[in-house]
Design a protein that fits this description.
The chain has 24 helices and ten strands. A hairpin with a 4-residue loop joins strand 1 and strand 2. Helix 3 runs antiparallel to helix 15 and helix 21 runs parallel beside helix 22. A six-stranded mixed beta sheet has the order 6-7-8-3-9-10, with helices on both faces.
């Protein structure tokens, strides 16, 4: 229950108004319920002529207790009605009064339930909003260790499970404790002796219901983990569908998916079987309790030892049965909540993930890029092995620096350190003499534009993809950027021009077209620092020529750091750095490096061959 209360404290405070109203209407429901059930006593006495006592009105300020005065005066009014209108008419009046009380009770019950709906839907929205905000704020390193399918499963399935299991129990949890307390107080007022006997039996039944619920959370956690495996498998299949079909591996993937899905099904079956046990178990135990109390109280009344009469005893049984119903619903909530807690535990892995790229406490504000970038004695590692070792490099403003070397030499890692996608392990990177860790990441990345090998586009229009990240971009600015990137012509050939949707990740475009849209986006942003990560390596010769032309226009008057596998594209760079096993082993211009007859010369010869 502590975990449940913590979740409520985290997410329910914005909805205090609705919480207050639902509690208020539940209290009203309980009071109206008790009054409507209390009419059973005079109705039974009239029907079965169980009482011939004569009642006199007692003033409310009398020295007698409130309970005795209330009961006496209630019977006084009933007997007065019988004397004035007769038993049949009094019975009709009591019945109509019961109808009015029931109408008010059901109305307040509806209002109490309706007030919970904004809390349920609002909390689910808040969980997903916070989850999304957390996901986009976490560093890239977090996602290299997590499967996308698993994160999607948490965002969809786990968040929904919290709503289904925990938030759907809010109605029961805010209603049933109030009903239980109200009904229990009524039972004590009717007969504290019988209630004491009832309390001796209840704990045993509560223990039996709690025993099954204890194991539910662990099984639910295992089931949600299996669902994550299922979503991860689906995401992997969709991402690699071309290869699956090319290698005729459909049967293999289907078999693998069926295996994971069957494991998930078996786990969910076990969880749901235990969950379905809640209602019949509570129903049976409730009936056992009623039978025990009926036997005990009935025996006392039959032997003339009871403290209440027969009609009051029937009212007691009705109230006891009414008490059992919220207890049963409460137990059902205790079965549901562990499933939601298991899902919340998985969501908290994202919520509690530590962002190892902290924002500076007192950031240095940068308004313009003036001097250059200094990489000073930088060391970096992801885990145990060093990826970069003692890298030092100065990139002057307006200079084009190319990074070359075999795959795994640390080129992409080095450029990722500049916009702080990762932080250096040792050493520092400075822009205009200021350590990048002392600059707000938003300000830092404002000065940079990226064009990657795999053009990352969104399922949106040409206009929105080019204007991505640029506030209030006009159509004229977008068109101008597209023309510079050699993209305007093929955009205008589409049905709706710049309003044409380009599909998921730009699937309706060729590789060269996607890359030119990516370049147009960078052109529109107009950053002083440009990072090119193998921007042309995946293209055919014709597309490469057009993209290279667009890149040359983009690189004019900018500080450019380019990673290149095709060495022909960086011959004119101001400085070429050759990386090997995390170290800069050679640096200089193209001709100077060829003259060294070292790593760079070997790379050129291999490409020429």
């Amino acid at each position: 229950m502590k975990e449940f209360v913590k979740i409520l404290r985290r997410f329910v405070p914005p909805y205090k108004k609705y919480l207050f109203l639902t509690i208020l209407f539940n209290i009203l429901t309980a009071i109206l319920n008790i009054f409507s059930f209390s009419l059973i006593i005079p109705i039974l006495q009239i029907l079965f002529k169980l009482s011939a006592a004569h009642y006199e009105f007692i003033p409310w300020d009398s020295a007698l207790g409130f309970k005795e005065i209330a009961i006496n005066n209630f019977y006084y009014y009933v007997t007065s009605l019988i004397g004035e209108y007769g038993e049949s008419t009094t019975l009709l009046i009591l019945g109509l009064f019961l109808c009015v009380m029931t109408f008010l009770k059901t109305g307040s019950y509806f209002m109490a339930s309706a007030m919970v709906i904004p809390i349920r839907t609002g909390v689910l929205r808040d969980i997903r909003t916070r989850l999304y905000d957390k996901i986009i704020s976490l560093p890239l390193g977090f996602f290299s260790e997590e499967r996308k399918g698993d994160i999607i499963a948490r965002f969809s399935g786990d968040a929904q499970e919290v709503e289904n299991s925990i938030m759907s129990s809010l109605d029961m949890l805010f209603k049933n404790p109030i009903l239980i307390v109200a009904y229990f107080v009524t039972l004590v007022l009717i007969s504290w002796q019988l209630t004491l006997f009832t309390l001796l039996v209840l704990p045993v039944m509560g223990w039996l219901m709690g025993f099954v619920a204890k194991k539910l959370k662990r099984k639910s956690l295992e089931a949600q983990n299996k669902w994550s495996d299922t979503m991860a498998q689906l995401e992997e299949t969709l991402g690699g569908l071309r290869i699956v079909k090319a290698f005729n591996a459909q049967d293999k993937m289907r078999k693998r998916f069926d295996g994971i899905l069957n494991e998930y099904r078996n786990m969910v079956s076990r969880v749901n079987t235990r969950q379905q046990l809640a209602h019949p178990m509570s129903e049976f135990l409730g009936t056992v309790l009623i039978v025990i109390v009926l036997w005990f109280g009935g025996t006392l009344i039959l032997n003339g030892e009871g403290t209440i009469d027969a009609s009051s005893f029937i009212f007691y049984l009705v109230m006891l049965y009414s008490l059992i119903n919220p207890i049963k619903e409460f137990s059902r909530a205790s079965y549901n909540i562990p499933k939601g807690l298991a899902s919340m535990e998985r969501l908290d892995k994202i919520f509690n993930a530590v962002n190892n790229i902290p924002e500076p406490a007192n950031p240095v504000r940068m308004t313009e890029f003036k001097d250059g970038i200094s990489i000073e004695n930088v060391w970096f590692r992801y885990e145990a092995a060093w990826v970069l070792q003692d890298i030092s490099l100065h990139i002057a403003k307006g200079q084009t620096v190319a990074l070359v070397g075999q795959s795994g030499s640390g080129k992409s890692t080095l450029v990722d350190l500049i916009p702080r996608f990762h932080d250096v392990t040792e050493g520092c990177i400075k822009i205009d003499g200021v350590d990048v860790r002392d600059i707000n990441t938003r300000d830092l990345r404002t000065f940079m534009g990226n064009v990657n090998q795999d053009a990352i586009l969104f399922n949106d229009t040409f206009f929105n993809n080019i204007a991505f990240g640029v506030k209030d971009a006009t159509m004229e600015q977008v068109v101008e950027a597209a023309k510079i990137a050699n993209a305007h012509d093929f955009i205008m050939e589409t049905a709706d021009g710049y309003d044409t949707n380009i599909g998921d990740r730009g699937s309706k475009l060729s590789g060269g077209q996607r890359q030119r849209i990516s370049i147009a986006r960078a052109i529109l942003k107009n950053p002083p620092i440009l990072i090119l990560d193998e921007a042309t390596s995946a293209l055919d010769t014709e597309s490469e020529k057009m993209v290279q032309d667009a890149l040359e226009k983009l690189m004019r008057n900018r500080t450019t750091i380019a990673i290149a596998h095709r060495l022909s594209t960086i011959k004119n760079a101001d400085l070429i750095c050759v990386l090997h096993e995390g170290k800069i082993v050679e640096r200089g211009r193209h001709e100077e490096l060829l003259a060294l007859n070292g790593y760079y010369k070997r790379l050129c010869d291999m490409q020429s061959f």
